[in-house]
Amino acid sequence: MRVTDVEVIPISHRLPEGRGLGDARGFGRDRATTLIRVETDDGETGWGEAFAPGSVVAPVVDEFFRDAVVGMDPFDVRRLAEDSYTDPYHFGGSVFVQSALSGIDVALWDLVGKATGKPVHRLLGGRERETLTAYASTMYFTEEDRPIAEPIEEAVEEGFAAAKIKIGTGVDSDVERVRAAREVLGDDARLMVDINGNYRPRQAIRTIKAIEEFDVTWVEEPVPPENLSGYREVKSRVDVPIAAGEAHYGRFEFKRLVDDRTVDVVQPNLGRCGGLTEANRIADMATTENVAVRPHIWNSAVGLAAAVQFAASVSDYPHTRNVPDPMMVEFDRSENPLRDEILTTPFDPTGGEVSVPQGPGLGVDVDEDAVERYRADR
Ligand SMILES: [Mg+2]
């Protein structure tokens, strides 16, 4: 089996005027990402997602990957992540190289799974679980004037028993939002908060101490992703676990997050971290240091599928029969047809769980007509 073509497919969706949503840094109306479609000489198709703008991914694929990938045997997939640091020398540590690599790598694993008849999580080292707890990503800052607890009420009605909400615009607002979410969720549900790097360390520490009484499972990106000394300062001053990783890519960056236990939870995005090959290495490294791995997922259904396959394979170490801190996958509850419409059978988080697809490769069928509807380059 040899690769015959790599296609870069930018897809996007714009929310209606006045319906923008976002985080502490501001609102946005556009959801956009890039699918990678790899074909082989035996007529098979593999899919991946590069979580970066297609207008950038396309020339990166052409410049750095196309010659190496066309003609390649997909079973040589692990070589690609290694080569990304040596050829192109000096450029491998770039977010756009790693994003393009992510999409190609996942598409190649999809092909290996299809060739062997096995789901990707079996190829990565085995099945740890067949269903995954899904947490609702919700309670965004919105342009609409809605009661703040309404999105959490909707998530509870769907059956979610875990949620992540946006905070980060000041300690009073942070406490109000966390209190409202906790009241709706009840005492037993897991509640995470995301500051999206909007604070300096002392602001973050003040907020985290103020919300600690609401039993927060983790605080995500309390300070900007590049501010590793800030992470260490925050972590040394609070008792709530600290998470980061959605903005990081490549095992070398993740090593810095894991070293000295800079964070308690790493969150690789399968469309940015370097793909399944690199995520597997990151998981091994994090697990070795007893740092939790919880994938970040704000992707299309293809990136979601990759993350679900990955999450299904990650060890529960150090837990054995009792797992007080279970693997969870993020399930965004904002409007996004790129997540809900491009698979013939979309993921269904009703009841707060998703099934791990057991079919070959990513275990999903991409609806190519639906992809065409959201193509951004036509
Ligand atoms: Mg986040």
TrEMBL record:
One of its GO terms (biological process) is carbohydrate catabolic process. GO terms for molecular function: hydro-lyase activity; magnesium ion binding. Gene3D superfamilies: Enolase-like C-terminal domain (3.20.20.120), Enolase-like, N-terminal domain (3.30.390.10). The keyword Magnesium applies. Its cofactor is Mg(2+). Transmembrane segments: none annotated. Residues 148-241 form the Mandelate racemase/muconate lactonizing enzyme C-terminal domain. This is Mandelate racemase. It comes from Halogeometricum pallidum JCM 14848. The lineage of its organism: Archaea, Methanobacteriati, Methanobacteriota, Stenosarchaea group, Halobacteria.
